[in-house]
Design brief:
Two copies of one chain form a homodimer. Chain A has a single domain (4-17, 28-78, 99-211), classed as Dihydrofolate Reductase, subunit A (3-Layer(aba) Sandwich). Chain A has six helices and twelve strands. The first copy, chain A, has helices at residues 36-39, 42-47, 57-68, 76-79, 131-143, 154-162, and strands spanning 4-11, 15-17, 69-75, 105-109, 117-118, 124-128, 147-152, 168-174, 176-177, 182-183, 191-200, 205-211. Chains A and B meet through strand 9, strand 11 and strand 12 of A and strand 9, strand 11 and strand 12 of B.
Chain lengths: 212, 212
Amino acid sequence: MTQITLEITTSLDGYVAGRDVSLENPLGEGGESLHEWMFTLKSFRTQHGQPGGEENADDALVARNLAALGATVMGRKMFSGGRGPWQSDPNADSWFGDDPPFRTPVFVVTHHARDPITYSNGTEFHFVTGGVESAIAQAREAANGKDVRVAGGASVATQCLQAGLLDRIHLHVAPILLGGGVRLFEGADLTRLELVESSASEKVAHLSYRPT
Amino acid sequence: MTQITLEITTSLDGYVAGRDVSLENPLGEGGESLHEWMFTLKSFRTQHGQPGGEENADDALVARNLAALGATVMGRKMFSGGRGPWQSDPNADSWFGDDPPFRTPVFVVTHHARDPITYSNGTEFHFVTGGVESAIAQAREAANGKDVRVAGGASVATQCLQAGLLDRIHLHVAPILLGGGVRLFEGADLTRLELVESSASEKVAHLSYRPT
């Protein structure tokens, strides 16, 4: 049965990107270091078309989530970093390159309609103007019984939480303090979660929650 | 050998107190729920002069840290919630009551000098006007080889981190989102930490870090 999951890496102080996010530096100051724990993993490298990689407990967890992945939902900022009409977005075809590491349908939440973009590796970007509920519904259909992953950014993640759309929150907590930047769940209503799974390596802690 | 440790509970979104902190509601909106995981533990209850309590993995961890405790450092806000001269502080003798749950020396960082307060249970409040470095130095001396715990609040914790005074950060992450309030490590410089220990129950995740 399809689970709607949020999977995202935060700093220990709750940021998903550092200070001064820009088109040139989409993860902000120090933000690249959030994801370092993943770059060496076999599952991550395979998904990105790279050879080799470590096969450890972190890798097993990433591999498990990737194997369950049927479709992805993300915000416009995560797709291209831009805003406003697509004609004025210098990065309108995404910053994921010619071999986007999804290989499944991706639903991009945006205010600006456009036709889908498809890649031979199975990635399809669909552009949804009806908000997160519509994006999740379309992704659920496309996932065909597999899971839907909400990948970010912070705004879409928080909207999905607040709308009660999430079955699971998989947080990867990187051992860094960014001190400022883009916060996850900024301004969310008071929420209780159930901690259903946890593990850690020296590079990252994994905490999985069920919103209640 | 004395370790200088920060031990503090945060929400999953990085708050150590909720919105609208006041003298009447010192932990802010929803902030009490941060500490619920501790209230039922035998070690916590014993420290607070209460009978009974659960003896589980969370309890063992709290008991271990309490057994190592030689002295505590805290900010004025954590001591009384007040500010300015002590004569104008409605809570000048602390909100810890007649049997403060420390039973060891406590060094309160404040701008306003005053004489120590001592209790028959071993708690001594000393008031330090020389900043966090002076408070840590005095606490180290008083701890007599045991550990010094920085207990909060957020400002003193961040000052100690930034001054390079912490050997360990023991974070207890409660499975709640407060959505706003008092943040831990707000505005800290970009910092890398080493994750040295982790464990979890359904009520709380424990993450221990070494600043590097």
